[in-house]
Every structure is written in C-alpha cells, then in structure tokens.
Amino acid sequence: MVIMTTASSHSFEPVLARIAEEIERTPGRGRPADYIPALAACDPRRFGMAVAELDGTVYGVGDWREPFSTQSITKVFTLALDLAREGDALWEHVGREPSGNPFNSLVQLEYENGIPRNPFINAGALVVTDRLQTRSSDASGELLAFLRAESGNPALDFDQDVAASESAHGDRNAALAHFMASYGNIDNPVPVLLDQYFRQCSVMASCADLALAIGFLARHGIRADGDRLLSQSQAKQVNAVMLTCGTYDAAGDFAYRVGLPGKSGVGGGIIAVVPGRCTLCVWSPGLDERGNSVAGVAALDRFTTLTGLSVF
Ligand code: GLN
C-alpha cells in the first residue's frame, strides 16, 4: 500500500506559492462589486491567501496582509456569537436550508412567513444581528472585539465610509428588515438594526486576520485563548451551515470544487475551515455573477486538490 503524505506535516508555504503562481497566470478575474464606490474601485488583480494552523501559526502569499472589506464573511461570526448566547432558540427565527436564491433576494420570505432560509443570506443575517443586538446591545461592537481578540490584531476596525455608503445604498436590506418586522421576526427598531448591520459589513481585515479569527471553528469551538465559545456540536452545526449555505446559490458548486465549509463576501474574501487541521482565507476582489471571488474559489479548489485536505 502506498501511504500518501500531504502538506499536513509540512509548512504550507510551497503550496501557497504554487497556487499564487497559477492564479497569476490565469486570465479572467470577474468584476468587483459595484453597488458601492468603495468596492467598485478595487483592482481585480489583487490576490492574497493565508492558512492558519490550530496553534496560530499563519502562512501567506501575495496580498495576505492587506485589509479588505469583509462584508458577508462577518455573518459567520455573528452567527457563532449569537448561538453562544442563545443556543437553539435562534433556529426558531432562521432556518438552515440552502436558499437557491441570490443573497439579497426577497421572494422566499413571503412564502415562508418572514423566516429566512439560512443565516448567511442577507435576510437571515439581519435576523441574527437583530438577536445579537437584543442580547449584547452593541452587536457590531461585540463582533469587532471578537475579531480583534481572535486575530490578535487590535487595529481591526470599521470603515466608516463603507458603512455610510452601505447605508446610502441600503434600500434592499431595509426592505428585507421591514418585511420581516411585519411578521414579528425583528425585535429592534429597523434603523437601529440596519446601522448595526452596515457597520458589521464594513469591518476591514486581512487574510491573515480572518484565517486566525475563524480558528475556533477548526478547534471545535475553542477560542484562541483556550476558552470555549461553542460546544463541539455547535461548531459542527456552524460548519455544516457554511458548507451548505456559505456561498449563496453557488454552495453546491463550491462544495463540489472545494469540499470545505466556506463563507464568501462581496468584498472578494472567502474563509474556509478544515476541521481539526487549519483555516484559510483568500482574497481577490473580482466576483462571478453569484457574488463569489473568481480567483478565491479557484485558489481554494487548488488548495484542497493539491493537499488532499478536505472534509471528504
Ligand atoms: N453589505 C452587503 C449587503 O448587505 C453584503 C453582501 C455580501 O457580502 N454578500 O448587501
């Protein structure tokens, strides 16, 4: 029998260098999100990737220390923070099925009585942030403190211009929030919730920061300082929802290509988790038509193919 060795016993640097070189040679990067000027101005040729081991050792390539707009990646963290506080009661207010619809879609909400399909489409994330707001009275502040602690980077912050721009172009998110409020599925005044949500989306962080910050999902719920945030079972649940719902209506294709729980954002970042082994974050601002980074998905696809590290 041939025993296969993978990158798991080595530094990840050679595999990252190889992926960066392949990405560099690949034409076609998609288009940056253009619904707000701050994102539209990003250069689609930028590319960075980081891998963090469970002990906090982090490897990277390209623009891996460059802060970018985290956007929907933050939905994983607010979900974890709210689950840690309220447990299963959350699932009475948001489902955990793939939506098969774009991340900002309104159509399913009416058929399903104001209960969003999952926490990673905008409607579901608004419900989660609303519930975290009720419990913490500063949902985005709690998120930022958590990201700073887990990444070890106290300089992480909101981008006030992005938050203001989100707000100025926020009609669809406002519509989602008001619609759910009409079903009694939002506790806080909608303007308060939207302010929290737009601040949440505006957090700037690098691939290194995010690969470290998501480490608790690879450590089965344990934070960087050894404290437990989630039970082992809850960490499994969050990973499962990421796998099935983390890349919007492309989650099936992402699972097929990458084989890892992952969450994307329209800033061009994607985080991914190899439970028990390591975490990844990749950033490249050019998106496909479903809102996922073209080079980001390609890089993760190559990573799991080259290393054999996937959940399957
Ligand atoms: N701020 C964006 C929005 O709410 C986040 C969407 C995303 O990253 N998919 O529309």
Automatic annotation (TrEMBL):
InterPro entries tied to this protein: Beta-lactam/transpept-like (IPR012338), Glutaminase (IPR015868)
Molecular function GO labels: glutaminase activity
E.C. numbers: 3.5.1.2
Keywords: Acetylation, Hydrolase
Residues involved in substrate binding: 72, 122, 166, 173, 197, 248, 266
Pfam family, one: Glutaminase
SUPFAM superfamilies per the UniProt record, alphabetical: beta-lactamase/transpeptidase-like (SSF56601)
Ribosomal protein is among the record's keywords: no
Organism superkingdom: Bacteria
Record's catalysed reaction(s): L-glutamine + H2O = L-glutamate + NH4(+)
Coiled-coil positions: none
Assembly and oligomerization: Homotetramer.
Xref: PANTHER family: GLUTAMINASE
Family named by the database record: Belongs to the glutaminase family.
Name of the protein this chain belongs to: Glutaminase
Organism, scientific name: Streptomyces spinosisporus
